Amino acid sequence: MADLKLENSRIKELDGLRGMTILAAVIYHYINNLINANASSFNFILKSLTKYLYTSIDMFFLLSGFLVGGILLKNKNSHSFFKTFYMRRIYRIVPLYFLLLVCVSLICNLQIGKGTEWWFEAQIPFWTYFTFFQNIVMGLNNTMGNAWLNPTWSLGVEEQFYISIAFLIYFCPRKLLIYILIIGIISAPIFRYYAPTVYALSTFTHCRLDALFGGILIALFYQENTFILFFQKHLSKLIIAIFVLLGFSFLFSIGKFKMEFYVVNSWFSIIYILILILILVDKNNMLSKMVRFKFFVDLGLYSYSIYLFHKVILGLFFFTLLGKLPQLNTAFDLLMILSCALLTFMFSRFIFNYFEKKFIALGHRYKY
Q: CA-to-CA distance for 283 and 275, rounded, in angstroms?
């Protein structure tokens, strides 16, 4: 995941936006995924209302595209362009990710979760997680594999994106880059339509170009005052467009209309792009004020460790303390899930302050 930092200045609103996004992702995994088909009426409604929260990953990809793209565009003429970019990415991503892999390896050696979908499947060899190829193998074999680690497919997407995007930005003239980005955005739903499996539709990197390239495109235009002035002039129309699209999204979620699966990510990428633009061009609207709340900003700071470990904490809590699969059937289950959420937040804050920050600082020894 990209740092919410453009060189020396930190964009507080984007920290908060990422905080909202990680909260949506956790709600999806902690609520929606744990409600079974025989749920009560209330739980069924809850499952419907949280149906599309999985698209929060598109906001993560959008932010990565915007922040990484912005940094690379700003430092395109640096003599240490590639070295600095890749070393910072390695220090930011790899240490905590490898800590996760070590923890999950120990958990599985203790045989916690054995005999359930939380166990390793032969289709996803453990070595693929160390090479960031798990998203490709998941897509080809149409399985998310080990439940402790299935959120890591998005890291495979991001790492493959990082490897290619630095070369694309460095070698492409601005006009050609814009054409390539637009073509990638338009092509993403087509790639999803022709994806070989259902999971490939989500896990293949080229199937997520609408959000990734959308973020870079915003970073490109955000450098120009005309872009900012245009949206500031039409701010009310921008806000109306967001509300209208969100209104239709609600109707889709409760089943009033049907949205094809390959279209969903493009639909929400458009919404998230408009939300990002709104936050960038106007600091006084209600959403911009909300994302500056300390709670969301803190969640944004800890989002990487929250994302990596929230399912691990959920699984450990239910398997070791309750002796059952994570599920949401009763009020007691909900209480346990809320306890997991609190524990995840506390753990992630500790990890950020005493582990992540040290490696981030090491990465920032490399200067553009």
A: 12
Q: Pick from 115, 31, 19: which is nearest to 323 by CA? A: 115
pLDDT digits (tens, 9 = 90+) for 109-143: 999 988 888 887 777 888 999 999 999 999 999 99
Tens-place pLDDT, residues 35-57: 876 667 777 788 889 999 999 99
Contact yes or no for 195/201 (Cβ under 8 A): yes
Q: How many domains does the chain have?
A: 1
Residue 334 inside a domain? The answer is yes
For residues 253 and 48, is the Cβ–Cβ distance under 8 A?
Answer: yes
In angstroms, the CA 235 to CA 319 distance is: 50
Smallest Cα–Cα separation from 89: which of 148, 23, 136, 158?
A: 158
339 is a domain residue: yes
- Six token digits for residue 291: 């994302």
Q: Using CA atoms in the order 145, 151, 156, 158, what is the torsion angle rounded to 10 degrees?
A: 160
Which domain range does residue 181 map to?
5-363
Q: Per the domain annotation, does 239 fall within a domain?
A: yes
Rounded-to-integer distance, Cα 220 and Cα 107, Å: 44
Coil, strand or helix: which one is 301?
Answer: helix
Partner residues linked to 9 by β-bridges = 6
